Structures are given as C-alpha cells and as structure tokens.
Amino acid sequence: MSHSANKIQISFDWVEIPAGEFLMGSNPIELITSYPDESPEHQIDLEEFFISAKPITNAQYERFVASTGYKKPGHWIGGVVPQKKKEHPVTYIDWNDANAFANWCGASLPSEAQWEKSARGSDGRLFPWGDEEPTNEDANFGNSIGDTTEVGIHESGASIFGVLDLAGNVWEWTSSIHREYPYNSSDGREDVNLWGARVVRGGNYLSAAKNIRCADRHSIYPSARDIYIGFRVATKTLSVIKKDCGIDFEWQKIPAGKFLMGSGYTQTDKELPDPEYFGVSKHGANRPADFDNELPQHKVFLDKYRISKTPVTNAQYEIFTKATSYPVPGHWPEGVVTPEIANHPVVYVDWADVQTFCNWAGVGLPNEPQWERAARGIDGRIWPWGNTPPTKELANFGQSDKTGRTKAVGSYPNGASPEGLLDVAGNVWEMVGSAYRPYPYNGSDGRENLDLPEEYVLRGGSFYSPHGRYLRTTTRSMNYQFRRRDHIGFRVVQA
C-alpha cells in the first residue's frame, strides 16, 4: 500500500485559528505564579492555521506505525495498544517520533506561538477556559486519577476556539527550541534540524494548577520519552494536508450566519424573469408541482463550514478505490480512469458508495442548507451567477453539445456562485446529506440521519436538464439510495 493510501486511515478534527495578533507570555495577573522564561509579555501576529482539536491518540499512532513500520512505543504490551487506552493520548513519544508522525500525515508540530494562541485566544486568559482556577471537570491534573484519560472528555476545559485538552493530561511537544522571549520565529528556534531542548506546553495529569496555565512553558530534550508527554499537530492549510487521504480538495469557506432558504414569491409565480426557462406562465397558472416542495421560504442559521469548489472527480474517486480496493464505477473502461474523463465528475455512484468514500476521506456530504447557501449566497439569487437565465456559457445543461455527457469540472467559470463554487448548476445532479422531506427545513427532525433507508435530496440539475428552472439554487429533486445514474455525482464538506 502506498504512503498516501495509508494516510487515509487517520482523520483529524481540525480547528481553525484565525489570523491576527495576540499577547504571548505572562501578563501582570500571572506574575505571582509565573516563571521568568514566560516574560516579557509581547505581541505576536500569526497567519491563519489549523490545529488538531485533541492530542494524537494511541489508536491514531498505531495506524502510523502499521503503515510505516516505525518503532512502537515501548509501553505497548506485546507491541499492541491496550484496548482501554486506544483513545488516550499516545505517550512515551520523543520529539523526533512526534515530528516523524506529523511529517507522515503532511502536517507539523505546532510552534510555541501557535500552541499558546490556540489555548488562550486574544484576551490573555490564564487557562484555556478563562481566568477561573481549574477543577477536575476542566482538566486532568493534580494526580487526581493517577493516569491519562481519554482525549476530549473535559469539554468544559475547551479553549475559546474549541480546542480540547490544552491543560493537563499530557505535556505536548511543540516545534520550538526553548529560547528566551520575545518569541521570534526567524531566529532559528523553529529549525527542525538544530539540536536543542524543545518546548512542551499544557502540563500533564501530575501537574499543579500553575503548570497548566496557557503561558507556562517547559524545556525537554528531544530524546526524552515519558508517560506524561504526547503531542498534537497543526497545518497552515488544509489543502496541504489533503485531509489525510491523498486527495487535494480545494475548499471554499462559507461563513456562519443566516440566509433565506427556499423559493420566494418571485421565483414561483408572476414575477418570473423568463418563463421559458421555468416551463411555467408568468401568472403561475401552469406552475409545476415540484415548485411547491421549495415552499415556504424560511430563514436558516448555519455554522461556518467548507465545501469543495467542484464535484468529486473520477481521478479523486480513483485514489479512493485504489487505496481501499473498493469496486470501481461500472462505466470506467476496464476499471481504469482514462485521461479523457479524469477531471469529469464521478458518476454511477450510489448512496452507499458516496458514504463509504466520505467516511474514508474524513469528509461529509453537504446537507441541504449548506448546499443552497454555498450556491446562492445571501442575496437570494435564482441561479448561482445571479438572476439572469442560464446560457450554454454558464452551465452544462440541455445536453448543450448534444453528446449527452458530463464536462470537466470547472469548465464554466462564469457560472460560479458568489462564494466561488463551480458547477453548482448543471453538469451533474449532486447528492446532499438530507432526506427528502417538506419545508421548513429542520435538521433535528431526523432528515439528517444518514442511515435512514429513504429518498434523499438532489440539487443543481444536470446536463440532461431541459430547462433553466432545474438549475435554480432552490430546485429540489429526489433519488433512491440504491440508484446509480450517469448524471448524478456529489461534492463534499468539512466543518
């Protein structure tokens, strides 16, 4: 199995840390309990980065070992992770071990500055959760149970960004050599080839409260291994890490907020801009019944997320089939993706195929509101590009070249959505992760249960679609989970 194929066995929960300044080091409130190497407090400006929400677990490290033949931690009994410790942070890891793991998955160890900003945010808090003294609900410290705990169980101890386990449990390796403040990333302290004691952060399950502060820093030689030292990983861009699966998804960011979902009066009745593209009269007398499934228009709030710029291609899906030996789509000549179709959206995949792909890659299908928000923006546009009916320069529909087939993704840049998505109108209908149910949309009513054996929603129209009305951002169709077609594909999201 190839290197990239093995990376897919690990899926991280990434937390985005926004670009901007923060105060690093001890502030006056901390001076009584701080150490000299935490001063002076100074301002640091960091670019956006992503950090794993939790420390790396034994189970994750085990997959790395199995994939590479790398040496196992010495405390694994018989070289096997104890069943009860699979979700505990991996320990007895020296700095070189941690760095090897990070390099293998395309990430890095966080720098001191990245770690501290992830822990304290920009408000100078003492602990990840604030300035309140820690309790055993916030963190595993003070030898309260005499061992590590599963990662992520101390939810009340999360940082302002939602990063967990930054206080207690295990010290965490950073990429930084221990040098005096002010922190300066260009002075050699981030050179992975230089020898020197590396900084660990966060304290461990034996630590006193003062040693689990955000600003607390200790130096340990890179060759050290112990039961209370672990690590987490970071990356400056998720496209570099390829979501641990060897596939370089190009992500578009969608900010949190409200938008109007579904059709308004102007889209379904008398104010239609061009009835030819809807197959209805301007007065709605011949309005198709399928318009009714878009009503009523209603407000939906979404958390921020990322969605792939284009549908998943044959070339991307091939990486999955080769890595897993999963059955290939039946239309690939001799089971191989040819150059002619490599960048076309993958088709002839059913619900089970797509869910298997998503689980493998650590991504998901967009639900209905995620898809519609990314397609139409917040200004209620009828089509991704605006309110003017589609042309053959904007989308692949109506069998535009009379060949009755897909086109390479990204072939219609003028048809982009306000968020920069391509191919959200025409080419292929796109599966979304929502059961086909009436509006108003309600994500808690069971329609997001991906195990339900019922019809799911399709969005966007395809090259077969005869009218522009099928390409609208609000158009909903349905499909059965077992059905495969030459005009149905999908794109993916990540929280």
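[next item in queue]
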Amino acid sequence: MRGEARKHSPASPLCHTDTTTSKDTMHTLSFTGERQLRYPAPDVARGAMLALIALANVPFWLAYFPETPQAGHTALEAMNGADQWWYLARTVLVDRRAYPLFSILFGFGMAIMASRTMERERRAAEDTFSAEEVAGWHPVQRQIVEENIERHVRRVAARLIRRRGLWMLVFGGVHALLFSGDIIGTYGLVAVVFAEIIVMKRAWPRVLVGSLVAALSLFGLWGRGFSMGGTPMVLEYHGPFTLTMFYPLTSLGNWLGATIATVLMSLVVPCVMIGVGLARWGVLQDPRGHGRVLACVTVGGLGVGVLGGLPFALMQLTWAFAGSAAWSYPLFHASGVLGACGWLALFALVGGGPREKLGSVCAFLSAIGRRSMTAYLSQTVLFILIFVVLGVAGVRSLGVAVSGLIALVVWALIGIGCVIAEALGSSRGPAEWALRWLVAKSARRRPLPAFLPVLAGQSGAPAEAAVTSSDAVTAAAAPCAESETPARGSVSEGE
C-alpha cells in the first residue's frame, strides 16, 4: 500500500516539525490526555473568567427596572456606600478587564485548534509518500514538497477557523435576540476576517494587525473620553429601557452594529493576537515551567490594571478630581489588557500543571471552562428569569452591589450544573456539541493536492526543468487544496 513504509517509520523523512507544535506541546494540546492526565490551566482560566463576565454584564439588565436612574449625577445619588465601594472594585478589577481576558483565551483556543488540525493534515499528506519515494527525490524537490504541504495545512486550518467563525456569528445572532451585548458574534467575525493571520507561523503579521487595531481603538476611546467631560456614572446606567414586542429585532439590530464596531474600535483583536502568541509560547500548557514569569505577570498585570483604572473610577464617583476623561478613559481600557493578563496568569497558577486528579476548586472551575459557551449563554437565560421574577414581585430598581451578588449566584448555579454534567460523563455542553457538529457537517470534502512536481524521469524533461517553482506547483494544486473531513475539521476550542 502507498505510504505503508512511512507509516511504520519512526520519524518522518519528509517534513520538518512545525516549531509551534513541538513534541511536548502537542501532548498538551488536549487538556484531557489519553492517560487521564489533565492540563487544567486553560479550562480553569475560562471557568474563572465567566465569573468576571457575569459581573461585567449584569449592569446591562438593571436598565430594565422601571425606576432605574438616568446616567450622571442622578445615578450617583441613588447609590449607597456599599454600591459605590463595589463600583470602585468592579471598575479597577472587572470592567474592561473581562472581555480582554475572554479575547485572549479565544485566541489561545483558535491557535490550539489550528495547531492540531495542521498536525493531522501534515501527517496525512506525508503518508501519501513512501520512504522509497522520498529517498529518490532531488533535494530541491524535497524542499518544494515541504513548502507545498505547509501551505496546504495552513490553508486547511484557516478554512476551519473561518467556518467556525461563521457558525459563531450565527450563534451570536440568535443570542442577540435576547442580549444585544453578545460577544460570541464578535469573536466569530474576528475568526472570519483574521483566519489566515491566526495560522501564520511568523509573529510579525499578528503584531502589526494588533498594533494597528489598538491604535485605532485608543484614538476612538480618546474621542469618547473627550466628549464625556466630567460626567459621573456614564458607564453604569444606559436607561431606563422599556421592553416591547419589538425588543428581539431591536436587540439584533443593535448587536449587528456593535459587533462590527467592537472589532474595529475595541481591543478585542489585539488581545486575540496575544492569545495566539501565548499558545505558541506554551505558557498555559506548562504553568509549572513558567511559574516565575506567571507570578510576575500576576502581580504586575493586576497592579497596573488597578492603577490604570483608578483615575477614571474616582472621577466616575466624584471622589477625586482626576483630570480629563480624554486621557483617563483610554488609560482605563489600555490598562485593562494588562489587568486581563494578570488575571490569566493567576488562574494559570491556580490551575497548575498536568496531574491525574484535580482538586475541588480546580475541578469546579475546569467543569465550567470546558463548557464555556454553554455557560455564557446560560448566564443570559438565568439573568432574564431572575430579573423577570423580581419585576413581577414588585422590585422597581436594584442596587449595584446587590446585582453583583446576583451575578455571582448565577455563575455558581451554572458551575454546579457543569459539575453535575461532568459527573454524568458529559465532556462538553450542548452549545459546544452543537457548534462542533455544525462545523463538521459544513466541511467540504476535497482531495489532497499533488504536492510533488513532475519528475524528470517521468516527463523526459531535463532535471532543471523538472524542478519547478513552488509557487507554480501550489497554484496548480490550489483548487483542490482542502482535504478536510468532518472528523478532522471539528476540533472544539476547549480541547
């Protein structure tokens, strides 16, 4: 059989191993290993992150209570001491710190998914050649084949990421019928637009794209901060709003515009690129080996996040004059990226290195993290149920501190549900299963391209003519470059 000799060879004689997927790293890509070893840090980080997401999103729902005060001094006067102190803590630790953490982990997941896909496709391509065939190649032919295989595997990985992103846009649109602040669609759009950048081996395109979007975002934030002046509590309240029969359509329309604006005018894209870089570095796969670095990032990142958010928080509470929001508001956002890195480093240290059995805290967080999309969508459902019940019971408004407690209760309830699902043997949540199935079913079956240029002995042409350029070979093979089957093209983010 063709390729049989290669399948039994201890090492591939054809292609070099991708520097982004070393042997040790590849074993850590599946956070639940074949020998029941667990690499829990990424899932622990996702699970803890969802608590921050719940705290950051709960103010959205306060606007639907009938006596919610208007933004500004009215909202500030309605806050008691506990509300103000909680607002201060939330501003410097959670707000504009949760979504960068979410973005970093999304980029990490996409990079891991791409690495695993490329490794499988690379092995499949190499297995089309026998060791005897490879031994008879001209060195230039060998180089051309290696280059063509690498182009092929990255093309397949990019298609997978883009297809996953398209389905995430669908999920986000459905979620937006209930919650216009949905972020799933934003990440889906990032995956669609920047799929090729994510799978690139070189780092400079990611640095360039991230820097350009960051500069555009900070310029826009400066403009919004300038327009704020010294108005307090502009971020806490957006209403009040009134629920109508047209709410789903209105919410969807708001989401469509916000999704595009978030990609262009926020720090989502730079943070996604940071996550891709972390996956290539391997720091989350091996927290013990990077313990000192993670400890420094924890202290430094959280410290900068607090200090960077403090001027804007104090101005919002009118506790101190911190100058113009034109500089404190962009600083609030920019420092949030470092704050998110601090949180991620802390959660990675909590998750620790690979082991057969997780402690109770890590097991709880990991169960949520393995079902992060399901947990995120469940937050919206529970918020709606709780606040509808409170509204029916006659509650006219809700304090900031109380809403924070409700958010933590919602997160804890979801966590309990995830633990129960884990105990019952379910490895993913319903949303993860649905996304995985849709991505796999929508894959197109394509034959493998012809990686090898025409041999001199077969064509009768001189050797110099037989060794054609890699660009020419790739161009000829491009129409049938994807060899993705549903089984190969459905790696979940949490794996």
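[queue empty]
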